[in-house]
Amino acid sequence: MRQSVLVILLLLNFIALLSADDEAAQCLVCHQETTPGLYLQWYESPHAMSEITCIDCHGADPSDPDAFLHEDSYIATLVTPGDCGVCHEQEAEEVGNSYHATAGMILESADAYLANVAGGHQAMVTGCESCHGARVEIDPDSPNKLAATSWPNSGIGRINPDGTKGSCNACHMRHGFSKAQARQPEACSKCHLGPDHPQKEVYEESKHGNTYYTNVDKMNLDSYSWVVGEDYYIAPTCATCHMTATSDQPTTHDVGQRLKWTLRPPISKFKDDHETKRENMADVCQTCHAGTFVDGHFHQFDAFVELYNIKFARPATDLMKIVRENKLLEREAAFGNEIEWIYWELWHHEGRRARHGVAMAGPDYAWWHGLYDVAHNFYFELLPAARELHHPEVDKFIDNLLSSDPMHQWLGQNTKDLKQAIKTGSIRDIYNPLYEADK
Ligand code: HEC
Ligand code: HEC
Ligand code: HEC
Ligand code: HEC
Ligand code: HEC
Ligand code: HEC
Ligand code: HEC
Ligand code: HEC
Predict the structure, then answer these.
(1) Ligand 5 centroid – CA 246 distance (Å)
(2) Which long-range contacts (CB under 8 A, 24 or more apart) does 407-414 make?
(3) What are the pLDDT digits (tens) for 68-104?
(4) 88 CA closest ligand 5 atom index
(5) How far is the CA of 208 from the centre of ligand 7 (A)?
(6) What is the pLDDT of residues 96-154, one digit of tens each?
């Protein structure tokens, strides 16, 4: 009933609108026929309710680099954060300041080099750039139209012809542009999944994901306001922890504001101002959990990150440095040698999976897809591949590590003694940050 009243009101609105603004009306009338699916997505959106029509977003100045004449109007196909920001200034500013906005600058990365040489350039376009964002270019043969080599693209750090970075419809699917949709984990999981950053999989296995998927109908997703603990309380989504409001914190479009660590590099690092950022995250948790529970979780998480850093990431990184400094690799081209792939998978895939698993309470990723793989790789792939190089400095480094670092000495001991150490708890004492002191 309410729905049909709304529709009638909306129709009345549009009749008024049609006579008031011919240009806006023409887009609607013609596109209702030519692209009816697109038209209906828009028609049911909050924008249509507020009389924001095609021309408000697509209208362009003839001098814009991507403007073209379309049925008597200058329009552009791209609607960038700069265009949305005319009406949504704060969101556009936060997106521009976020790490997401830098995601298109990957050309210099080792990942990009690897994809270009070991894969092939087209892998960059359809793989990397679809998540990270392409530099959108104008087709030199068709005045001001977008080049097929760089668009379609809705990567999170897309580099737009107007100089802005990102694309709002990476999360807010067009032409609904709804916040209800962006609040759900699916909005993030086109990109945040897979062997090197399995946040989607971690979430799905966590109790948070479990509770969410079995209670989606109680999430109050369509509510105008969506403050955790006030408008809903059943489970957190990705957006709850990383973006949306609590009773004490506003919504932010800068997804880095609640992170203490950067877990992406080989050795995890603190972010700037990391204590405040940790407090911001803990504030979210404490809507549903007690302070001691939350502190316990973060104690376990931080200790795990330190363990990964100290026991595996640092020695593996130091070992590779010795290998490179002594020019021990057969082929000069980076990634032309197997040991480089082994090291890469240790931190870029396995080590990230482990860290992400613990951060977001996914135990299978912490261990079986995580530190288990790291340990197997380290002892039975990386070290043997390094031994194969038959170099005294490499051998000395490994011998020293295995004999004098208590976290690696187990390899030289017997099972009975080790089991006893586990039983008495003395095994725990050796996992202290000793590696640094030893150097
Ligand atoms: C008389 C019909 C008609 C009118 C009026 C019209 N369009 Fe279109 N528009 C089309 C058709 C048909 C296409 C698809 C062309 C194609 O497939 O190449 C299109 C394509 C587009 C595209 C994609 C262009 C591209 O090459 O990427 C946009 C954006 C667009 N229209 C927006 C608008 C806006 C905004 C208005 C109002 C200012 C408008 N249209 C008015 C018929 C119309
Ligand atoms: C709230 C802003 C907004 C409004 C209103 C809007 N669009 Fe769009 N439109 C976008 C965005 C964003 C994109 C994706 C372009 C990009 O990647 O930057 C897009 C893309 C398009 C495309 C090309 C992509 C495709 O899937 O073919 C067409 C055609 C188009 N819009 C037509 C329309 C028409 C017709 C209307 C009115 C019924 C309309 N748009 C209303 C923001 C808007
Ligand atoms: C279109 C792909 C894409 C989507 C959709 C996406 N992200 Fe990201 N996200 C990325 C990429 C790529 C990076 C790494 C950025 C870089 O390399 O500069 C990233 C980084 C992040 C970071 C780390 C930020 C930092 O400061 O270190 C967080 C947190 C994050 N995303 C959360 C989210 C959440 C939550 C959502 C959904 C609401 C989401 N992302 C949607 C691609 C995406
Ligand atoms: C499925 C989407 C997706 C694809 C495909 C993808 N990435 Fe990423 N990439 C991400 C996400 C998401 C992150 C951030 C992960 C995190 O913070 O845990 C990321 C992180 C990175 C980082 C680390 C950035 C930093 O500052 O630490 C680099 C570099 C990178 N990607 C380059 C590439 C390259 C090059 C390719 C193609 C060979 C590629 N990525 C393919 C989604 C993707
Ligand atoms: C990483 C995913 C993501 C990206 C990218 C993103 N948004 Fe959002 N946006 C969200 C989420 C999640 C919400 C829901 C916030 C809430 O419920 O409090 C939201 C809400 C909004 C709202 C509703 C107001 C509010 O704060 O609740 C507006 C307006 C908005 N976004 C505009 C934009 C614009 C403009 C851009 C591009 C400059 C953009 N968004 C990019 C995820 C995203
Ligand atoms: C001409 C002004 C204008 C432009 C341009 C515009 N919007 Fe909006 N937008 C609005 C208005 C008005 C509302 C309704 C505000 C409200 O109800 O609080 C809205 C609401 C929204 C919402 C909240 C939807 C919901 O579910 O309540 C999102 C998300 C959003 N816009 C995203 C975008 C994105 C992304 C773009 C660019 C692609 C964009 N807007 C361009 C005016 C605009
Ligand atoms: C219960 C809250 C919670 C949920 C739900 C959640 N996260 Fe996280 N996320 C965290 C915490 C806590 C961290 C680590 C924060 C720190 O560094 O202190 C984190 C870290 C991250 C990072 C940074 C990884 C890096 O390499 O530095 C990304 C990206 C991310 N989450 C994305 C997501 C995505 C995508 C989802 C949904 C599929 C999600 N998160 C669900 C709490 C959550
Ligand atoms: C909207 C409410 C909500 C928020 C916010 C929330 N959680 Fe939870 N969390 C739950 C629920 C519900 C459970 C399942 C409780 C149970 O075991 O029955 C849970 C379980 C957990 C568990 C137990 C995992 C297990 O497998 O036993 C941990 C750890 C946890 N949360 C940590 C966090 C952290 C850290 C944050 C903030 C980054 C957070 N939670 C934010 C609702 C929430």
Answers:
(1) 16
(2) 407/310, 407/311, 407/431, 407/434, 407/435, 408/311, 411/379
(3) 999 999 999 999 999 999 999 999 999 999 999 999 9
(4) 35
(5) 12
(6) 999 999 999 987 899 999 999 999 988 888 889 999 999 999 998 988 899 999 999 99
